[in-house]
Design brief:
With 579 residues, the chain is an alpha/beta fold. It is built from 16 helices and 27 strands.
Length: 579
């Protein structure tokens, strides 16, 4: 094999199955050699981490093959949709680093879809059914038994045309009539058994107002919208596999009507992103928000993209995670720890190292001159030589972590304990001399002495010391609130667990959720201290509180009340705790 062929083989092997399909389509000259994708969210909620996988694929495929990815809002259900969600979706996509070619809405095509439906009625391919939804469902049959035809299936074309007009005029109440495609009630594909393609909805639409009362169903609107726009590759999740024949049929029907060449969208399906300890259904997320179980759609415990953003995840970390799990044709449950590991990998390279003490106890260096203040140089990011340094003040009285002192310590305890030396990070080596307690036995102060010749960078600083702890100067730090976020659910598979609880206790989703929520998903620490360097930190700045974890500035933070969110701990402690 030549060097060029070896390179080509390696690149081919690295392609996922959808990229391979796209390359095959291009080689065969389909769609004139174009690649055009679309991301089609319904504006009925905020995007979650599962949507991020689809976004990376839709936009990534277009970018890789010199095409365009459009944003199209599937706004065919006015009862659940809102412009608030439209704007939030656009913000999330742009934050992830993508920009759509054109912005479309399914409602842009309502007139074309209506005209298409009229023609289907005229051609005997659609009819008005006046049965209840329960009757229609019962007549569908089962996967092994054919359905039975509606008594309205062969009603006169003129009658169906008249009733269809009345469905949109406001004369017909919701649920009284639907338009069904006339396909095959004996088809082994249940979706071919005369699917409903229009229903009555009298709620005003967020874009078209009261113009329409009859609205197309998703299966009817989706493929035609792809076709009208010139989409070449319609990328969907695996639940749409059985829908694909219907998708293709409707495209065939609209193509016959248009009598155009075979420029058609081709649907390919990939696996959803499923995470343990996560519930991603928009319906259930809406319950959490409305019932106050979380603090809004962007609560950092939510699996929404805006929630992860507020928590301190970077767009690059989400890309890294999506690349790690890849795209397949089978569903799997991914470990949340894998997402967190991707976040750590990314933030390690970009987060600024700072000192913060979240559970403080005072350390007094008894032989350090009173009133003296030194500025110690702190490296901003050891992984990035270009990140520079900043100064942190050092003085006689410091705050240290309470967990970094133990009066009666075990043999392998290498932090602060009486008689033992420890290094204060970027500063001096000190030896603990004792502590002070209150009447209840709580430690209020720790005492030590420093070695003046052991300052970091001085010749005397090379003495081997096993323990290093961080600190902030009591007189030069800022008070802060620190929010420690953890997983919202205490069960690994909340979706299945919720179903089991509801069945066992005959309760609603809300009550089941309350049983599964992790009571320790948020801990608010009010008496924390951070170095003055953080006075200028802005929301979404990426920070590492040394020896504690990755943090960012919350949107609630003000100059007078600093608030920091824990993004992720430095190491995966959850897996060990929950083994």
């Amino acid at each position: 094999m030549t060097e060029m062929n070896a390179t080509e083989a390696t690149e081919k092997k690295s392609l996922n199955f959808i990229e391979q399909a796209v390359e095959n389509d291009l080689k065969e000259g389909k769609n004139g050699g174009r690649v055009q994708t679309r991301f089609p969210p319904e504006p009925n909620g905020y995007l979650h981490i599962g949507h991020a996988k689809a976004i990376c694929l839709d936009f990534g495929i277009a970018a890789r093959y010199g095409g365009v990815c459009n944003l199209r809002f599937d706004d065919t259900n006015p009862t659940k949709e809102d412009m608030e969600y439209v704007e939030a979706i656009k913000e999330d996509i742009q934050w992830l680093g993508f920009q759509w070619g054109n912005e479309y809405y399914a409602s842009d095509y309502f007139q074309q879809l209506w005209d298409f439906a009229i023609n289907l009625i005229k051609e005997g391919k659609a009819y008005i059914d006046e049965q209840t939804s329960e009757q229609i469902a019962e007549q569908k049959g089962t996967p092994t038994q054919p359905g039975t035809e509606s008594p309205y299936r062969n009603r006169p074309i003129e009658e169906s045309l008249d009733l269809f007009q009345r469905m949109n005029s406001g004369e017909i109440e919701e649920g009284k009539m639907v338009l069904r495609a006339k396909i095959d009630m004996a088809s082994p594909n249940m979706h071919f058994r005369d699917p409903i393609i229009y229903r009555v909805v009298k709620t005003p639409h967020h874009r078209t107002g009261d113009k329409w009362k009859a609205y197309p169903m998703y299966d009817f609107a989706h493929g035609q919208s792809d076709y009208f726009e010139g989409v070449t590759h319609s990328l969907c999740t695996l639940e749409f596999v059985p829908h694909r024949p219907l998708y293709d049929l409707f495209v065939d029907w609209v193509k016959e009507e248009k009598d155009l060449d075979d420029n058609r969208p081709r649907q390919y399906e990939f696996n959803k992103l499923n995470l343990n300890y996560t519930l991603m259904s928009k319906r259930n997320l809406l319950i959490l928000v409305k019932e106050g179980l979380v603090n809004g759609w962007d609560d950092p415990r939510m699996p929404t993209i805006c929630g992860f953003r507020r928590r301190g995840y970077s767009p690059e970390s989400i890309h890294k995670f999506v690349n790690k799990i890849g795209y397949t044709t089978y569903d799997a449950l991914n470990d949340f720890a894998l997402l967190e590991s991707a976040v750590r990998e990314d933030l390690n390279s970009r987060a600024t190292r700072v000192s913060a003490v979240i559970n403080p106890v005072k350390l007094i260096i008894t032989n350090y001159p009173e009133g003296q203040v030194e500025e110690m140089e702190a490296i901003n990011n050891p992984e990035d030589p270009t990140a520079g340094t900043h100064n942190i003040e050092f003085s006689r009285e410091l705050w240290i972590e309470r967990d970094d002192f133990m009066e009666d310590a075990p043999k392998k305890y290498f932090r602060m304990t009486p008689g033992q030396e420890v290094r204060l990070k970027s500063a001096y080596i000190v030896k603990c001399t004792g502590c002070k307690k209150d009447e209840e036995g709580n430690i209020t102060e720790v005492y030590c002495e420093y070695d003046p010749d052991s300052k970091t960078g001085m010749p005397g600083s090379n003495r081997k010391i096993k323990g290093t702890i961080h600190w902030v100067s009591c007189a030069h730090c800022l008070p802060a609130e620190v929010r420690l976020y953890d997983r919202l659910w205490k069960v690994e598979n909340p979706r299945d667990e919720m179903a089991a609880i509801r069945e066992a206790k005959n309760c609603d989703a809300l009550e089941a959720m309350k049983e599964m929520i992790n009571p320790d998903s948020l801990k608010v620490l009010s008496h924390c201290y951070v170095e003055k360097f953080l006075a200028e930190a802005k929301p979404l700045d990426y920070l590492q509180f040394q020896r504690i974890g990755y943090f960012n500035v919350d949107k609630d933070s003000t100059p007078d009340h600093l608030v920091f969110n824990r993004t992720v701990s430095l190491k995966d402690t959850w897996s060990k705790i929950n083994k």
